[in-house]
Amino acid sequence: MAVSKLLPLTLFITFLCAVNNGRVEATHEIYPQFQSLSAVSVHQLHRTAFHFQPPKNWINDPNAPMYYNGIYHFFYQYNPKGAVWGNIVWAHSVSKDMINWKALEPAIYPSHRFDRKGAWSGSATILPGNKPVILYTGVDPNDRQVQNSAVPANLSDPYLRKWIKPAGLNPVVDPEAGVNASAFRDPTTAWWLSGHWRMVVGSKRNHRGMAYLYRSRDFIHWIKAKHPLHSAPRTGMWECPDFYPILLSGKQGLDTSVLGKQVKHILKVSLDVTRYDYYTVGTYLTDEDRYVPDNTSIDGWAGLRYDYGNFYASKTFFDPAKKRRILWGWVNESDTTSDDVRKGWAGIQAIPRIVWLDPNQRQLMQWPIQELETLRGTNVKMNHQMLKTGDHIEVKGISAAQADVDVTFYIPSLDKVEAFNLGWSLTDAQLLCAKKGSKVQGGIGPFGLLALASENLEEYTPVFFRIFKSSQKHIVLLCSDARSSSLKDGLYKPSFAGFVDVDLTDKKLSLRSLIDHSVVESFGAGGKTCITSRVYPTLAVLENAHLYAFNNGTETIIVENLNAWSMKKPLRMN
């Protein structure tokens, strides 16, 4: 469960109310004066068109996405009374394609002693007999976090509208002695192994992040294992853990219980202290019930991330209809709380992505689900366009505030690549992007796209590459720099960035950006590195938004091919 606004780490304030003796520890930015302040009117200016977003109010974590009897179900944390965190329920929407959604009544809301003070995040598992069960975190009257279950009231209802909490069974997991009851939440989808179900609950012990492991024969009585599935020092609270298998090759997804020699495992955790999602690629040692990251994967702040921008509290699920694993992630606002109250809404979900293992087996790849392409409208193309130093060429003929653009750049020569300064950090791409930006001239780069740009470039969000040369290889940096995105004061406008582990033998780099009024969601090198930015332009809005391809490096870059589409609104949204 996540509630804080995204802030730079140096400014992130943690509100601590002691940990000991079961007293509560919180990292919540709570605004009780706004929690039940419903919007009189909803400001539409920066609302997204094709991202998942309810008509008004606050949303955060994707809870338990699942596919059941031909229907995709999406549950998420929602405040039905206001545009800040509070009054949280499990909102519920259904779809046949994860693009067009129908909103239903909330599935879960606080109603019993075991969840009286909160019904927080969790996951769904489909049990034998095609029976779905939700595990979720409840907060009891003593502020203890416990794990509860809920089941559909009527399995014959195709939409599973009503969910019940089985009488006398909850909580199914109570934090025992030695477990921090105020940091014990977000149970995972369960997997089956050797006669037992297994699931993980996120926690921490002092500053050590913990993935506590629980086992059950019947999905009712759960016993804590003697040791966690995994833990790591100096990483703090592990929110929203996710543990799943992934094939060594190919894009096919796997059910959470699949094991085998051709399978690796992914452990993702959302670090409460940084507000980013990190994952490792590793091996699940079934005999020991332990997970061991590969030596190419690092736990903690220097590790791999799904997304190097505004993306948190993510959750995956296996889609058996199309044999794929789908990733959902929460994209919070980066304006102020008072802005959110004024506009009457806060939070969106990133476009669902398929995930698979990179052929190098060191990281994941991600790509928007194919169903998104059904929203593509007017198309324009650009082929074999030279971009000389200082060029910015407009992509005309589409709605630039609501677009899908996919471009491949060709780099004629890699001879004049800027040397990578040994004083720069290979673990802090964001610092390097902030230092260099989109205007400081390099050898190869910066080049890329100027999204949500005003006509005279008073505002623009550049998404771009820079290429450096170390003694051994080329180093590719992808940036999404919001510092020039808006003339408005008081916004959080970071220069998000990630390094791209890519071979430049063919001298090509691809970039796809989904532009949707106040969000720019970008996928570098076919999905090796992803960055999501929230921006709030004042000039580059609606029909006044523009899109450019640009190059501020000394070496000419060629737009080998560019496809851009205006994006239509889904037929039905929440």
From TrEMBL:
Residues of the signal peptide: 1-26
One Pfam family named in its UniProt record: Glyco_hydro_32N
GO MF terms held by the record: hydrolase activity, hydrolyzing O-glycosyl compounds
UniProt entry tagged with the keyword Hydrolase: yes
Start and end residues of each Glycosyl hydrolase family 32 N-terminal domain: 51-368
SUPFAM superfamilies: Arabinanase/levansucrase/invertase (SSF75005), Concanavalin A-like lectins/glucanases (SSF49899)
Gene3D superfamilies documented for this protein: Exo-inulinase, domain 1 (2.60.120.560), Glycosyl hydrolase domain, family 43 (2.115.10.20)
Protein family (similarity comment): Belongs to the glycosyl hydrolase 32 family.
Protein name: Beta-fructofuranosidase
